[in-house]
Structures are given as structure tokens and as C-alpha cells.
Amino acid sequence: MAAPRLALSVFVLMLAVVALSEALRGTGPKKCCFKFNETPVSKEKLVGYTMTSQRCNRSAVLLKTKAGRELCVKPSAAWVKEVMTYLDNKTLPGETSNI
Questions:
Q1: Is residue 99 in a domain?
Q2: Pick from 26, 58, 15, 65: which is nearest to 43 by CA?
Q3: Signal peptide location in the record (predicted)?
Q4: 62: closest CA among 91, 94, 90, 37?
Q5: What is the per-residue DSSP string for 3-69?
Q6: How many folded domains does the chain comprise?
Q7: Is residue 30 part of a domain?
Q8: Residue 86 belongs to what H/E stretch?
């Protein structure tokens, strides 16, 4: 009679440990890139960019187009660095320059 209760207690305890460890791990990154666009994209077609999470296996930049698409590109590519600099320096509508 004690053996089934012990087995059930051990099972419930193990289930609680697994649930707790999964909860502490948290949710994964929202978006990671597995394939990359190698073709340079015109700066005029882009509206912004974001970096993928550090929790992704491969570092990537998500370029946002005027058409609403997101393209995965390698941040080490020279043209990507140039596009990121261009977008960083681009003044937003309604903003005035202090130069």
C-alpha cells in the first residue's frame, strides 16, 4: 500500500521539477534567421532594421522594407553595415536637424 503512494509522490515531485525548470527557462526568441539574403537591397526600399536575439544560434539583422517584409541578412556583410549606418543617420519625418 505504501509503495503506490511513494511512487505517486515521486511522480508528482518530478513533474513539479520539470514544470519549474521549463518556467525558469522562459520563452525563446521571437524571431531567428536560418537562411540569409545575400543580394544587396537598395537603401531607398528600407524603413528600418532590428537585430535578432542573442539567444538565436546565428547573429542576424532583420531589414524592414517599405512593403512590410523582413529580410534576414548577415551583420558582417559590408553592404549591411552601410545600410544600417544609413538608416541610423536618416532623419525621421517631422524631425529637424541640429546641424
A1: no
A2: 65
A3: 1-23
A4: 37
A5: HHHHHHHHHHHHHHHHHHHHHHH----S---SS---S---GGGEEEEEEPPTTSSS--EEEEETTS-
A6: 1
A7: yes
A8: helix 78-89
Q: What is the pTM of this model?
A: 0.62
User: How many angstroms from the chain centroid is the CA of residue 90?
Assistant: 23
pLDDT at residue 28, rounded to an integer: 59
64: Cβ contacts below 8 Å, ≥ 6 apart: 46, 47, 48, 49, 50, 70
Q: What are phi and psi of 3, to 5 degrees?
A: -65, -45
**Domain of residue 13, CATH code:** 2.40.50.40
Grid coordinates representing 26?
Answer: 522562459
- Asked if 49 contacts 89 with a C-beta cutoff of 8 angstroms, the reply is no
Query: Residue 35 has which C-alpha cell?
Result: 537562411
